[in-house]
Structure formats: C-alpha cells, structure tokens
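User: Run a structure prediction on this.
Assistant: Running it now.
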Amino acid sequence: MTNERIVFTAPGVAELQPAECTHPQAGEVLVRMMYTTISSGTERANLSGCDTVGWQSGPSVHFPRYCGYSGAGVVMEVGEGVTEFKPGDRVATSWGTHCRYLIRDVQNVHPIEDDRLTFQDAALALISTFPMAAVRKCRLEIGEPAIVMGLGVLGQLAVQLLHT
C-alpha cells in the first residue's frame, strides 16, 4: 500500500509526502482514511510555525509537524488481540493525522454503527467534543441563547449545538 500524509515542513510550507505504511501491532487497527477534519486555527498555527498551545513562535517550535484530530474510514487490518473491529468496519478515529492510511490503538478507534452516518459527519466526532465541552463549562443548556465569538469549525459546531 502506498501511504501519503500532509506534513508542514517549514513555516508556510505544507507538503504531501510519502509515509511508511506498516502492519498494525497488538492492540492496533489500520484504517484507510476517507476523511479527516481540519481545525483551521490549529492548522494555521502549525503552518505558520506557532506553538499551538501558547500561540507563540520561537525556538521551541520545530518542523516537520504532523497535524490532525478527527477522521473516519474503513478498517483494513487489525493487530493481534483486537476483537472489537474487523476488516471492512466503518470507524471514526481520534488523535490521528492527515494521511491515507492510519494506525491507531483501539482506544482511538470508534465504530460507526449507524449506516446513515456519513464518513464526512463521523470525521467530526472528536473535534465536535471541544465546543461541547465549552458549552458545558459555561453551564449553558442546549437551545439557550448565547454568543459565539469566531465562526471557524469549532464556532460553527458550537452554534449548531446551542441551536439544537
């Protein structure tokens, strides 16, 4: 299998590069990614060379950088001891990278049990928990009036959650 991934190689430079594609080890799953979600703020910070935690550039920022949060795809292979998944299963992934094939431990692979859920929607699974945590921290109720500052991916998800 040919694997590729998006790599930020220097400030302002993103490249699609070949990547090693191995077999999953014990407790791991190999997923052919169909979609990954871009978090515009984090991706922009990584592309520009900022520290994504402190939003500052400086000597502690290193390249290359590999980004990603949420994704969705199809299980291709499972490692030893994995009984939760089998090849062909539709899954969402957490804390992966933007690549064609991704190996994740089973704790970061989640079954898509409803065939009506698209890969595009499932790819939002992890990242959508971020605005939900903010809504909960503010002690807002779903449907209660609120102001959302910034309408990137997270802001748009927050609006949808609050509007439900």
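The mean pLDDT is 89.
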